[in-house]
Write a structure and sequence with these properties.
This protein has 306 residues and is an alpha/beta fold. The protein has two domains: 156 residues, Rossmann fold, CATH 3.40.50.620; 115 residues, Elongation Factor Tu (Ef-tu), domain 3. It is built from ten helices and 15 strands. Helix 8 runs antiparallel to helix 9. The longest helix is centred in the first third of the chain and has 16 residues.
Length: 306
């Protein structure tokens, strides 16, 4: 997958089949769009393209309201990895600013999609809006097809458990600890990527070795405080494990990880932690009962088949 940081860098993409959006989570609805992009790219001997934004538009447009406490399902690195696994050919990361937000929907189509990229097909999800004040929609794209020499296509909304999937619902499920529901919406495991540091076996007495997993981005959402069954992957390494989302003394969350099989485990390597199931609620290591709860969770996770 090729990554571009401007439209000009991407102007030589052949027969681009384009979609646009934040794609936080790269969930089942996003994957439906990406699969359609790939199919159309094959049909037209072209390449699939996602135009996405950094920072998230809400962070820029509503810094004191909707964007103030917005947490994202993925870090930028995690999102790019998921997009590549989904088969995307190209991603254009737009530096989202207030100035960029003032581009009208027709300017966006005329100057960028048509003028620079020469888009062959533009695909959008159900009820997608774009441009200044979200004025653009699929109806406009349909009307501009002949004028700007592309085909427009809309993907229907996706449902899981008879519920419409959205990044907002996934964030809520994660924050409440409903990891299995979030994973169903995502169509993959909720993940945390990071590089282990700070071995904690001396701090948490009578328990197996724990490491801290520092977060690369503060705005990444974390599951509810508690104990989780996870799998841990790195190059040439895979193991079951247990993750604890712990409340620190400053009331900020901390991610602790216990890897069950440490064969070939190298803490110098970046790892991917996939969350499978919440096993127990919040623990406090100042409470002696927490030790017993963690030991029980280790036994329970060891017996799980995943």
């Amino acid at each position: 997958m090729k990554i571009f940081n401007s439209f000009e860098e991407a102007k030589n993409i052949i027969n681009p089949v384009v979609t646009t959006g934040s794609f936080d989570g790269v969930h089942i609805g996003h994957k439906t769009i990406l699969n359609r992009l790939s199919m159309l790219a094959g049909k037209y001997n072209g390449e699939s393209v996602l135009i996405t934004f950094d920072p998230h538009p809400r962070k820029v447009l509503y810094p004191d309201t909707a964007g103030k406490d917005l947490k994202l399902i993925n870090s930028q690195e995690e999102k790019l990895d998921l997009l590549e696994k989904a088969g995307l050919d190209n991603v254009i990361i737009v530096n989202f600013t207030r100035e960029f937000s003032k581009i009208t929907s027709e300017q966006f189509v005329r100057d960028l999609l048509h003028g620079i990229l020469h888009a062959k097909v533009v695909v959008v999800g159900f009820n997608h809006h774009f441009g200044f004040n979200k004025e653009g929609n699929y109806k406009q794209l349909w009307e501009w097809q002949e004028k700007y020499e592309f085909e427009a296509e809309e993907i229907p909304e996706q449902e899981v458990y008879h519920e419409t999937v959205s990044s907002t619902k996934i964030r809520q499920a994660i924050s409440e600890g409903y990891i299995q529901r979030a994973n169903a919406y995502l169509d993959h495991y909720y993940i945390i990527k990071g590089r282990p540091e700070n071995y904690l076996n001396q701090q948490i007495h009578d328990l197996p070795l724990f490491v801290q997993i520092p977060l690369t981005e503060e705005c990444k959402i974390l599951p509810a405080y508690g104990i989780y069954a996870v799998s841990v992957e790195a190059e040439f390494f895979n193991s079951k494990g247990m993750a604890i989302i712990l409340r620190k003394k400053d009331n900020k969350p901390e991610v602790l990880l216990n890897v069950f099989d440490r064969t070939n485990f190298d803490s110098a390597n970046k790892i991917t932690i996939s969350f499978h199931k919440m096993m127990h609620g919040a623990v406090n290591f100042s409470d002696k009962s927490a030790i017993a709860k963690v030991k029980l969770a280790i036994e329970e996770i060891s017996d799980l088949i995943y």
